[in-house]
Design a protein that fits this description.
- With 313 residues, the protein is mainly alpha-helical.
- It has 17 helices and no strands.
- It is globular, with a radius of gyration of 21 Å.
- The N terminus is likely disordered.
Length: 313
């Protein structure tokens, strides 16, 4: 009996590791087999649940501070999840200078995109803000479209987004400036994010990139952060927004970018304004009209008719 005792903890540890490996395998299998369209809807729901919470926080916390803490919270979670990939000596040696530059650029663009977006939706409606911001992905898709079918799909998506935005650029000039800057950062997020995704290191590149981005936007987010340190629940909510919008939402984006080319990814992003309109209706009582529904139909048509090419393994 005594001779058997030392073996018991070892058996339990092996079983736990096996279960953990099995869980990771099932999760990876889901992201590798689920349709990109379904993953995009999942990502969009996570992102705009975070956006709705963030909008409520704006009454108590500076939007730039919410964006800053969102990025910090997401980077901490992602680095914790991917710690073995980041700190394992054999994996760390494979980071090249080009990889690190892409990762840093990606993180900075993402942090600035979040900051500009929050500064914008403080001033303009969520649905309209997302629709105008979509100019960035549309431009990326346009530059990479070669076939007539994909051109038609892009046209449907672009017109649909324009209809959703109301093609209304009057009023709130500062809000419009911020959303156009966010659009530029979104285009950068797509192009550089694809490079980071092809490094095939899970979410480690996203986590480290966001950590760098958080440092860059600290001068913008830190000055108005006083209320957060006096009320821990506000800090928790800001971090929760980061988990929903960045860790989950952008983590799914990285999974999709490993499987499909930038052009298809950019058109699929048209699902985000549609989802934002639905979330804004449910959570913020921003009701879509008949024209909005027509725009949503155009977007869904564009997503449906485009070619479904994939990146060869």
């Amino acid at each position: 009996m005594a001779g058997d005792l030392p073996h018991r903890p070892r058996t339990l540890r092996l079983n736990t590791n096996a279960a953990s490996t099995a869980d990771e395998s099932h999760l990876a299998g889901f992201f590798n087999t689920a349709s990109p369209e379904a993953l995009f809807v999942l990502s969009a729901v996570a992102q705009y649940i975070g956006a709705v919470i963030a909008i409520d926080l704006f009454d108590q916390v500076n939007p730039a501070t919410v964006a800053w803490l969102r990025v910090i919270g997401a980077s901490l979670v992602l680095i914790l999840i991917s710690a073995r990939r980041i700190f394992h000596p054999r994996d760390r040696q494979r980071w090249t200078r080009q990889d690190l530059l892409a990762m840093a650029t990606f993180g900075i663009a993402t942090a600035l995109m979040n900051t500009f977006f929050y500064l914008a939706i403080e001033r303009i409606p969520l649905g309209k803000g997302v629709a105008i911001e979509f100019i960035g992905p549309i431009s990326v898709a346009a530059l990479r479209t070669r076939s007539r079918r994909n051109a038609l799909a892009l046209l449907c998506a672009a017109v649909g987004v324009a209809v959703l935005s109301g093609v209304e650029l009057s009023g709130e000039p500062l809000g419009l400036l911020f959303i156009f800057l966010a659009s530029v950062m979104w285009a950068t997020y797509i192009v550089v994010g694809s490079r980071v995704a092809q490094q095939n290191r899970g979410v480690s590149g996203l986590g480290l990139g966001l950590a760098i981005g958080a440092l860059v936007v600290t001068p913008i987010g830190l000055p108005g952060s006083g209320p957060v340190w006096a009320a821990p629940h506000l800090l928790f909510l800001c971090f929760f927004v980061g988990v929903m919008s960045n860790a989950i939402g952008y983590g799914i984006d990285q999974s999709v970018l490993r499987r499909i080319p930038i052009r298809r990814f950019s058109v699929l992003l048209a699902l985000l304004p549609v989802t934002a309109t639905v979330v804004a209706f449910i959570a913020l009582d921003q009701r879509p009209n008949a024209l909005d529904l027509f725009g949503m139909t155009l977007v869904l048509t564009g997503v449906f008719i485009q070619e479904r090419e994939k990146i060869n393994s």
